[in-house]
């Protein structure tokens, strides 16, 4: 039996407080009705609760959580799942700028499109975008994987370290110090499993974007490369 929270006439603080009270009482599934694009919903959830938002949410939904499973049956604003440690965030619609920024683990799935700077400074985890994404996705990404089934905007993976980006469509422009490779058999198997698990229709093939490693360590001999980057 689900615990239900109707957001009408409630503040974000009250909604989040009721959510935590329900978790403390032992409820494993919470349905949040009429979220009406409120900001900061479901932040810092530290238990494996299943929360369903029946509608769109605003900025920073699911931020800083560790182990929860959140579903958004709508779209999400900026910063969805920012700094998530673990867990999953599933967004049925589109997401604003900075989705999955600085996550350390877990999985973020956006079935629609993502705006600019998706997955910036990721330190682990997986971001799956069923549609296309805007500019600077994967900027300064340290670890983790981004999968874009559609097209990617300019400056893709700019100054990336050990992250990996897979793109099924067109790439408007690669960022500094990136190279394109063909996915290997292990990559293809992982991609197939990821798409099947989250029921996302992928393209027939992907390109793999990784760091060229020229910017990993500063060398005065390569000063012009650094100037170009910054």
Overview of this structure, please?
By secondary structure, this protein is α/β, with parallel strands linked by helices. The protein has two domains: 1-93; 105-230, Glutamate synthase, alpha subunit, C-terminal domain (Pectate Lyase C-like). 14% of the residues lie in helices and 25% in strands. It contains three helices and eleven strands. The chain has an eleven-stranded mixed sheet, with helices on both faces. Strand 1 (3-6), helix 1 and strand 2 form a beta-alpha-beta unit. The longest helix is centred in the N-terminal third of the chain and has 13 residues, at 12-24. The chain is elongated and about 50 Å long. The N and C termini lie far apart (54 Å). 45% of the residues are buried.
In short:
By secondary structure, the protein is an alpha/beta fold. 14% of the residues lie in helices and 25% in strands. The protein has two domains: 1-93; 105-230, 3 Solenoid (Pectate Lyase C-like).
Task: Spell out the key features of this protein.
single chain, 230 residues, alpha/beta, Pectate Lyase C-like, 2 domains, 11-stranded mixed beta sheet, 3 helices, 11 strands, 25% strand
User: How many strands in all?
Assistant: 11
Order of helices and strands: EHEEEEEEEEEHEH
- Shape annotation: elongated
The oligomeric status of these chains comes to single chain
């Amino acid at each position: 039996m689900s615990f239900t929270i109707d957001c009408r006439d409630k503040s974000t603080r009250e909604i989040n407080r009721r959510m935590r009270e329900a978790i403390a009482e032992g409820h494993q599934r919470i349905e949040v009705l009429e979220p009406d694009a409120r900001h900061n919903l479901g932040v810092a959830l530290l238990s494996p609760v299943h929360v369903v938002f029946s509608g769109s949410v605003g900025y920073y939904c699911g931020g800083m959580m560790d182990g929860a499973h959140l579903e958004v049956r709508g779209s999400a604003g900026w910063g969805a799942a920012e700094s998530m440690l673990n867990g999953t965030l599933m967004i049925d619609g589109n997401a604003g700028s900075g989705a999955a920024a600085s996550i350390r683990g877990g999985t973020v799935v956006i079935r629609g499109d993502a705006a600019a700077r998706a997955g910036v400074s990721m330190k682990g985890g997986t971001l799956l975008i069923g549609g296309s994404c805007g500019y600077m996705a994967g900027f300064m990404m340290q670890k983790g994987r981004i999968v874009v089934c559609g097209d990617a905007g300019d400056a893709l993976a700019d100054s990336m370290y050990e992250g990996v980006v897979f793109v099924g469509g067109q790439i408007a422009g690669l960022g500094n110090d990136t190279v394109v490779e063909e996915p290997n058999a292990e990559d293809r198997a992982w991609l197939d499993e990821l798409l099947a698990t989250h029921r996302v229709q992928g393209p027939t093939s992907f390109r793999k974007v990784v760091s060229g490693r020229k910017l990993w360590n500063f060398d005065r001999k390569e000063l012009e490369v650094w100037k170009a980057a910054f």
